Structure prediction request, 88 residues.
Amino acid sequence: MLLCNTNNDTNFNSDTAIEYEKRGLTINLEKTKYICMGERKEILKFDGREEIKPCTECTYLGTKIDQVGDNKTEIKHRISQTRKAINA
Prediction:
């Protein structure tokens, strides 16, 4: 998952992937998506041929994040989880 504030932050290219691979990390571009907070979503081209698709909401380190960038989604999720636990 890529997190960015503007479309300029989405400069994700093969050099980045090469640096990751040097450190033993691999990128599954079929599963990779990105969220751009407050900006228009576009499909990113990786190496001119692979595409990274945008998403409107994701979970990062256990926290719900949406493209608005506030914590309302996380608060609603936690309330929902609490209700489920109480009613279980």
Remarks:
- The longest helix spans residues 72-87.
- The CA atoms of residues 23 and 47 lie 20 Å apart.
